[in-house]
Write a structure and sequence with these properties.
It is built from 16 helices and 17 strands. The chain has helices at 6-12, 17-23, 56-59, 68-78, 91-103, 115-134, 153-159, 162-165, 183-189, 213-226, 248-251, 277-280, 296-309, 312-335, 362-371, 394-416; strands spanning 35-39, 42-45, 50-53, 108-112, 140-144, 175-178, 194-199, 202-203, 209-210, 229-233, 257-260, 271-275, 340-346, 349-354, 374-375, 377-378, 383-386. The radius of gyration is 22 Å and the shape is globular.
């Protein structure tokens, strides 16, 4: 009998939550439960416990877990062609690029692997465009405090949240941050040396804060006046999350560059930067790239996701589900004023702000929810965040609300002890 290799032994050894602490770099603090199987919004852990998932993998699984049509697209492509490298193009990437440009303001697409990479490409493109058109002095980027644009050094610096940049200094220069929705602050800093203004139409990590329409309109006007490019980061709020394919379509303000990721692949890693012919021409062969960007597997999956989401009936149902869920959450807030203050958000991107007495305790609600089979998120310490799959049913909304109420009761009882 051949000796069993160390690799084979390791593969056969059961893994648990404790294994994470033994072998993973400590950049996360995951839950003690380990998910092993999902279907739609239902999820089961290693112990066989059932959960209703209202996190959507942080707005990634827009069509739920293992959506059959998306699985079929992946299987078909996996049996055909996996990867060729960017020295060649491929049919799936061309089909996806055509579908995205047909569906949006954009003429051109650049594909990568994540939202951070999409934003990195957008920021580089904006500086390259300004450098070529106006000269090197037009290089400053303006963004909002409490925004989130990724975890690369460049994107996390643009994000304007000190907790994510502490210890990584020196940070990239020529970055300015303004308060979200503050038009006067924008007017004060968006001057002729600015190459780009980047904004999330709905801030996600910053607390589920929708932009005021007049704020986005003011940014558009200021960019037009100064020659800066307006970048919309729709990594979290895009792909149907707000009830439109992209949030800019509901605001009536068109950006120069748009970034998307997360739900684009429904869990298969892919990101994209969309822009116009004139701006895209600032890049040339070799000026930017990525090994896996435009991979046939990822783009085949993303095309099917886009085809499913970008239909009037699907998007209308998202709006209907969002209205129903928001109304029921507002009832929860009214019934638990000692815990919650108000509901805010856009579409199925929803935040429940904690009351003054429960400031900093959003995590206590999500922990109680998990114990009651409900998966929720936080958006900072003061907001419980819900990002359910866009296919959520009315029955699942009712189930989620019932489990939330039970969880709040449990959290209150624990505090009273």
């Amino acid at each position: 009998m051949n000796a069993v290799s160390k690799t084979e032994q390791q593969a056969a050894t059961p893994v648990t939550r404790q294994t994470f602490d033994e072998v993973m770099v400590p950049t996360y603090a995951p839950s003690n439960m380990v998910p092993v199987r999902g279907q739609g919004l239902d999820l089961w852990d290693q112990e066989g416990n059932h959960y209703l998932d209202l996190t959507g993998g942080i707005a990634v699984s827009a069509l739920g877990h293992v959506h059959p049509e998306v699985v079929a697209a992946l299987h078909e492509q996996a049996a055909t062609l996996w990867h060729v490298g960017n020295g060649y193009t491929n049919e799936p990437v061309l089909r996806l690029a055509r579908a995205l440009t047909d569906a949006t303001f954009a003429d051109r697409a650049f594909f990568c692997n994540s939202g951070a990479e999409a934003n990195e490409a957008a920021f580089k493109l904006a500086r390259k465009y300004a450098h070529g058109k106006f000269g090197p002095s037009k290089s400053r980027i303006v963004s909002c405090t409490n925004s989130f644009h990724g975890r690369t050094l460049f994107t996390v610096s643009v994000g304007g949240q000190p907790k994510y940049t502490e210890g990584f200094e020196p940070l990239p220069p020529e970055l300015t941050h303004i308060p979200f929705n503050d038009i006067e602050a924008a007017r004060a800093v968006i001057t002729d040396d600015v190459c780009a203004v980047v904004v999330e139409p709905v801030q996600g990590e910053g607390g589920v804060m929708p932009a005021a329409p007049e704020f986005l309109q003011a940014l558009r006007e200021l960019c037009d006046a100064t020659g800066a490019l307006l970048i919309f980061d729709e990594v979290q709020c895009g792909m149907g999350r707000t009830g439109k394919l992209f949030a800019y379509m509901d605001y009536g303000v068109t950006p120069d560059i748009l970034t998307v990721a997360k739900a684009l692949g429904n869990g298969y890693p892919i990101g994209a930067m969309l822009t116009t012919n004139a701006i895209a021409s600032a890049f040339s062969v070799g000026s930017h790239g990525t090994t896996y960007g435009g991979n046939p597997l990822a783009t085949a999956v993303a095309l099917r996701v886009l085809q499913i989401i970008n239909t009037p009936s699907f998007l209308a149902r998202v709006t209907q589900a969002a209205d129903t869920l928001t109304a029921k959450l507002q009832e929860v807030v009214r019934d638990y004023p000692q815990v919650f203050d108000h509901v805010r958000g856009k579409g199925l991107m929803i935040g429940i702000a904690m009351s003054e007495a429960w400031m900093g305790k959003a995590k206590e609600i999500t922990k109680a929810a998990e114990a009651n089979g409900l998966m929720l998120l936080i958006a900072g310490p003061d907001v419980v965040r819900l990002l359910p799959a866009l296919i959520i049913s009315d029955a699942q909304i009712d189930e989620g609300i019932a489990r939330l109420r039970k969880s709040v009761d449990a959290a209150l009882a624990a505090q009273a002890k």
